[in-house]
Amino acid sequence: MNQSLFPAGIKPKHIQLPKTDVFEPEVYAWTPPQAQARMNKKINKTLWKFMHDQGYGQPESTLTGGFDLKNNQQGILSLTMTIYSYSGGAHGITLEKGLTFDIFSGKSYNLKDLFKEGSNYTEKLNILIQAQIAERNLKDNLLAPYPGISATQPFYVADKTLVIYFDVYELLPYVYGTIYFPISIYSLQDTIKEDGPLGKLM
Asked: What contacts 132, CB < 8 A, 6 or more positions away?
C-alpha cells in the first residue's frame, strides 16, 4: 500500500465586503472529511474574530488581508493569516495569526502541545530568544524589558524551524513591524513531544 504523505490541498476563499477585502485559506483535499471540516471551522472562526478585533464593521476601518503557507508536509499544516487595518492617521497596523494543524485529525496546536509535559521548554525558548535579541542588536530598542513568552504565545512551524513572533508594539516600535525569532527544532530536541508537530518534522 502506498503510504506517501501528500500536502493538504489549500485554496483561497475571497471575502469581499464593504471596506473589507480578505483571502481566507480553505482546506479542500488530501485530508479526511472530518479533519477538513474541523480545520476549516477553526480557520474561519479565528479569521472572523481577528477581523472584528481589527475593526471590521466599524465605519472608519478598512481591512485587507491574506495568508501564507509556512509548512505543508509530513501531515503538519502551519499557516499565518495577516490583516492590515487602516482607520485614519499616519499609518495602519498589520497583525498576524498563526495556526498549526495535524491534517489527519484536524487538531490545532497551542505552543505547549509541541513539547513534553514537565519539560523546561518555556525557559529554553526565552533563553534562545534573548540571545537573538542581543545578536540582532534589538535590546536598546525594546519598549520594555523582554517579558518572556506567554501561555498563548503565537508561533508557526516552517520545515525544521519553530518561529516565535511578537506583533507590532509588543516588543519594539512600529518601524520594526512583526518580530520573528526562528529557532531550529534541533536546539529543542530534548523537550519536543515525539508525536507532536515538531517531532514529526525531525
From this structure: 138, 181
